[in-house]
Amino acid sequence: MIQSAVTISLVQEAAGGPFVYWHDLAGSCQQASALGFDAVEVFPPSPTAVDPAELRKLLSDNGLKLAAVGTGAGWVKQKLHLCLPDPALRVKARDYIRGIIDFAGPFGAPAIIGSMQGRWSDEIPKPDAIQLLSEALVDLGEHAKQYGVPLLFEPINRYETNMVCSVEQGLALLKPLETCHVRLLCDLFHMNIEEVDIAASLKQAGEYLGHVHFVDSNRRPAGCGHLDYAPIAKALRDLNYNGYASAEALPWPNSPEAAKQTITAFRKHFH
Ligand code: LER
Ligand code: MN
Description:
Elements: E1 3-9, E2 21-22, H1 25-35, E3 39-43, H2 52-62, E4 65-70, H3 73-76, H4 87-104, E5 111-113, H5 126-145, E6 151-153, H6 167-174, E7 182-187, H7 188-194, H8 198-205, E8 209-213, H9 229-238, E9 244-247, H10 255-270
Parallel strand pairs: 1-2, 1-3, 1-9, 3-4, 4-5, 5-6, 6-7, 7-8, 8-9
Helix pairs in contact: 1-2, 4-5, 8-9
This protein binds L-Erythrulose and manganese (II) ion.
C-alpha cells in the first residue's frame, strides 16, 4: 500500500521553494496528523539543526513516521555539491550528506540526494563528474546500509542540473554501482519536464523506485495542474510500490489548503 507524506522546510534560504509546510516543525506535524498523513518529509538547514529527541516525540505524539530527509540545504546554504572542482569541498559535501544519513537513519528514513548531485563544468567534464558522483554514491549508499534504509537519488530537470535529469539516466548511473543501497526518487514535477511517458518511466524504474514526490505539472499540489494521475497510480500499483507519495509541492494557495488538497488527491488516486 502506498503511504502518504507531506514536506516541511526548515530552511529560511529556501523561501519560494516547493514545500507544503514551512519553518514550524511542531505545528506542521500536528496539521499533517490531523489530515491523516502517514508521515512527514523534513528539509533541515543542517544535519544537527533538529534535535532527534524532539523530533522523535513530535512523531510519536502525532502518530507520524519520518518518510525521508533532504540534503539540499548543503547546496542552498553552503553551495556544496558532489562534483565541485575543489577536492576539499567535495569531501565537505560528502560529509554533509553522511551527517543527514546519520540523522535520518535511526528513524528508519532515507536521505535524499537531489541538488547535491551538482553539475559538470569546464573544470570537471561530464565523464569525470559522473565518476565522482558514482564514487560518492557507493560510499554513501554503503553508509546508509547500517540503518537498513536506502540512499535516495533524484533525477532533476535540465534547468536545475546538467547531470542526471531522467529515469533512464538515473538507471544508467545506479545499475553499475557496487552497492544496491541507492534507489531512485521519482519527482512527478521533474518527470513532467523530462519524460516521454511518466507511467512508462515509473515502470522502467521498477525495483529501483524508492520514493515518489507527489506534485502536479506546475509544482502545485496534485490536482492543481494538468497531470493525469490515473496511469501513474496504475503503474505504481502494477509495481506493487509500497513506498511514499510525498507532497513536495508549492504551498499553493497556502500551506493548509495545499496539504488538504494533497491528501484528497492521494485518497482519490491511491486508496
Ligand atoms: C528536491 O526534491 C527537488 O525536487 C529539487 O527540485 C530541489 O531543487
Ligand atoms: Mn523533488
